Structures are given as C-alpha cells and as structure tokens.
Amino acid sequence: MNPPALEIRTLETIVPPAPDRPEIGGPDHPMRKVTRQVAFEPDGWTPERAAKVAQLFDAMAPEWGARTTQERQDVLRDALLRGGCGDDAGVCVEVGSGTGSSTDDLARVYDRVVALDLSREMLRHAPPAPGLRVQADAAHIPLRTGAADAIVLVNALLFPREMDRVLARDGVLVWVNSLGDRTPIHLPAADVAAALPGRWHGVAAEAGWGIWCTLRRFHD
Ligand SMILES: C[S@@+](CC[C@H](N)C(=O)[O-])C[C@H]1O[C@@H](n2cnc3c(N)ncnc32)[C@H](O)[C@@H]1O
Is residue 207 assigned to a domain? Predict the structure, then answer.
C-alpha cells in the first residue's frame, strides 16, 4: 500500500501557551498573501517582489533584534529537541536568518550553519558568528543539490522547489512560526508539506506562542 501524501503526527504541548502573545500579523497581513503565493504559485516570486521584500526588511533591520524574546526562542528550541533534528547534525541552512536570533541555537545542534538572508541590512545587524552569513535569495540558494542535512525556516518564506533541491535525501525541513497563526509569514504544517514536491511525513506541535513542524521525505 502506498504511504499517504503526507502524514504529520501532532505531539503533546510541553511548552505551555504563554500569555500576552503580541497582536501583530494575522490573516489579513500583506505578507500572508506573499507567503502563500511563493509557496503555491510557480510565478509567486518575481525580481520586483524580491526587491520590495529586501527593501522592507532592510528598513526593519535596525529594530529587528528588539523582537527577540524567550517565548519566541522557545518554539525553535522545542522543535530542535523533539523534532528529531539532533540525528541530522551536519550542514544546516537557515533561510531568512534575519539578525541571527536563531543561529546560536542551530549551531549547538549542527556542525555548520549557513545563514542566508536577502536583506543586506539584516545581515549587517547580525553577529558575525556562529554561522556563515550569506546574502542570497532563498529562491536560488548558492549551494549544490543535496548539500543541506537540514533546512530551517523561522518565520521565513518557503520556496518549495529550491528547498527540495538543496535538502539531502534524508534531510529534515524545520518550519517554525514563533507567533503561531498570527505570524505574518505563516503556513500551517499540513500546507508546508503539501507545498513541497513529493510526499512527506513528520511531527508538529504547538509551543508557547508558536507552532513548529519537522518534515522528512517518504522513500518508496
Ligand atoms: C520575518 S523575518 C524573520 C527573521 C528571523 N528568522 C526571525 O525569526 O527573527 C524574514 C526574514 O527573511 C528574509 N527574507 C525574505 N525573503 C527572502 C528570500 N527570498 N531569501 C532569503 N531571505 C529572505 C528577510 O530579509 C527577513 O530577514
């Protein structure tokens, strides 16, 4: 019997829902539409859109670090702990790394972290280490096919074909939305798996203010 197109097991919540989730984002946020178009439409990402998004995040970069809170960090930490990520030490590609608030946590698990961001200003406000910081568009990752043992997206746009290309055959894709369904760049776990080429399985959970899932390919 063929495995289902996607199979996601929901784990129990161990990081309790934190009070006072910031009331930003939500379904009407302009980035929500962009997120869905990039994930599901072949022409969802154009050079004009890339330039606008880079400009938007360049402008937010100086203040971006102030958003980092324990509650936001806890979501990725729960994913790394319970999402089967420690088995995949090797090369981790962090997509949309911003000012680097997740890179320390990733460097504790993976041997090498390549932190990509489209915005030059975000990279300029990030610490130089750990991780190799690279200005690149995640629609065209400057790495060979299958180079990443893990691809981690914390509130970052999903480029399904490119993530599929760069992720190793047995690699793991880690998806984190630190503010759950209020995150401007949000997709539910099932949509992440559905957007990716092929068939995927994994685990998902809520944690604090957020949600996460880790996905791997089914092999026939
Ligand atoms: C919402 S921020 C998240 C930053 C960081 N991961 C965090 O959670 O604090 C999204 C980041 O993705 C970057 N970004 C947007 N489009 C991108 C693309 N096509 N390739 C690489 N980075 C991109 C932005 O510049 C920004 O730094």
Answer: yes
DSSP conformation class of 17: P
- pLDDT tens, residue by residue, 29-75: 999 999 999 999 999 999 999 999 999 999 999 999 888 778 788 99
| Centre of ligand 1 from the C-alpha of residue 12, in Å | 29
d(CA 212, CA 51): 28
CATH at residue 111: 3.40.50.150
> Does some domain include residue 35?
yes
The Å distance, Cα 220 to ligand 1 centre, comes to 34
- 169 in a structural domain: yes
1 found inside a domain = no
- Give the Cα separation of 38 and 3 in Å (integer): 27
Q: List pocket residues of ligand 1, CB cut-off 6 Å.
A: 53, 57, 95-98, 101-102, 116-119, 122, 137-139, 154-157, 185
Residue 121, domain extent: 6-217
Number of folded domains in the chain?
1
Please tell me whether the overall predicted TM-score, pTM, comes out greater than 0.85 for this model. Answer: yes
- Cα(119) to centroid(ligand 1), Å: 7
Task: Tell me the pairing of strands 167-177 and 210-217.
Answer: antiparallel
